[in-house]
Specification:
two-stranded antiparallel sheet, 1 helix
């Protein structure tokens, strides 16, 4: 006989929205990716890009 662990308690909608808002906070260029397994959010990933402006100096 094998024992299986019960699935971890899923965060409520308000907690998920707080995490998504936190990932979006101050993000100017980039993306936020939400990963689901069996309809449950399991990961929120933030990818941020920094855009550099040319200084106008040429070598």
């Amino acid at each position: 006989m094998t024992n299986t662990l019960p699935p971890p308690e899923a965060p409520d909608d308000a907690a998920l929205l707080r995490e998504i808002r936190a990932a979006l906070h101050d993000l100017k260029f980039g993306s936020v990716e939400i990963t689901l397994h069996h309809g449950q959010v399991v990961q929120i990933e933030r990818k941020e890009k920094f855009r550099l402006q040319p200084t106008g100096k040429q070598a």
